[in-house]
Design a protein that fits this description.
TIM Barrel, two-stranded antiparallel sheet, globular
Length: 278
């Protein structure tokens, strides 16, 4: 099996699982009913970025397929999200994928309740259907992740149209130059209607391991005029500084914060290092 087909197979499997979840949820609550709830939900806090030139999206996730269990103590996700907000994170990413990350939609509800409107939460999942954006908004989310590699053009457009309707910010996730080219075109088409971020995930989709140097290699292809996010592989203050110098304005950090003995301290170290270079 080629590297490309292996990565496609992984994303196709995750997309199929995601579609199955939508089917089960839709059997209990129709699109119209869920949409009405979403539109009636109180507005989420806006994503506010620092003028310093560097911000942090801190992630809550129970498990990583690459490293295994991350929260062996069964800690409340809301308490962890609260600490991230206290440390200065601009947003909190919440994994809601159940089969590989031990996530639940209820975690998003818990996090948004704990944050009490201070910073927005972002639903991170393998989203394939606008229905899932309505779910995110009902749960209090202010943003969502959209993985470009796994979506047809019409699917990506449908998600962005729904995000604009719900006033959600969107992190467009890319893995290579082709994804970044698509992200740039979406920024041109939708950037005036909703808040967009462009992220580079530096994991190998076959092994799920971080690929050293990929973030720097792809930095010259980052689109202009939009905040760009380094995803995965950011574990230390030195990493944050290095990636700001490469051209990133934000970092999404999950596993390192989940494993840190002092998560508030690490989050602050990342922010200080990135802002000193910004």
């Amino acid at each position: 099996m080629s590297a490309q087909s292996a990565s496609v197979d992984f994303l196709q499997a995750m997309a199929q699982s995601s579609r199955e979840r939508v089917t089960r949820a839709r059997a209990k609550l129709t699109d119209g009913e869920l949409k009405a709830q979403a539109l009636a939900t109180a507005a989420a806090p806006a994503l506010k970025l620092s003028s310093s030139g560097f911000d942090l999206i801190a992630e809550v996730k129970r498990r990583s397929p690459a490293v295994g269990q991350l929260d062996s103590r069964g800690e409340e996700v809301g308490a962890r999200a609260n600490d991230y907000a206290l440390a200065g994170a601009a947003a909190i990413s919440v994994l809601t994928e159940p089969t590989r990350f031990d996530g639940e939609l209820s975690h998003l509800h818990e996090v948004t309740a704990a944050l009490k409107g201070r910073v927005p939460a972002m639903r991170k999942d393998f989203l394939v259907d606008p229905y899932q954006l309505y779910e995110a908004r009902v749960a209090g989310a202010g943003g969502v992740l959209v993985i470009l590699r796994m979506l047809a053009a019409a699917q990506a457009a449908a998600l962005l149209e729904t995000a604009a309707e719900l006033r959600l910010f969107v992190l467009l996730e890319a893995f290579d130059e082709a994804d970044l080219k698509l992200a740039a075109s979406l920024v041109r088409d939708y950037g005036a209607r909703l808040k967009l971020l462009v992220g580079v995930n530096c994991r190998d989709l076959r092994t799920l391991q971080v690929v050293p140097g990929r973030l720097e290699t792809l930095a010259p292809s980052l689109p202009r005029g939009v905040p760009c996010v380094a995803e995965s592989g950011v574990e230390s203050a030195a990493d944050a500084a290095r990636l700001v110098r490469a051209g990133y304005q934000m970092a999404l950090v999950g596993s390192a914060l989940m494993r840190a003995g002092d998560r508030i301290g690490l989050a602050r170290e990342l922010l200080i290092a990135g802002r000193q270079c910004g």
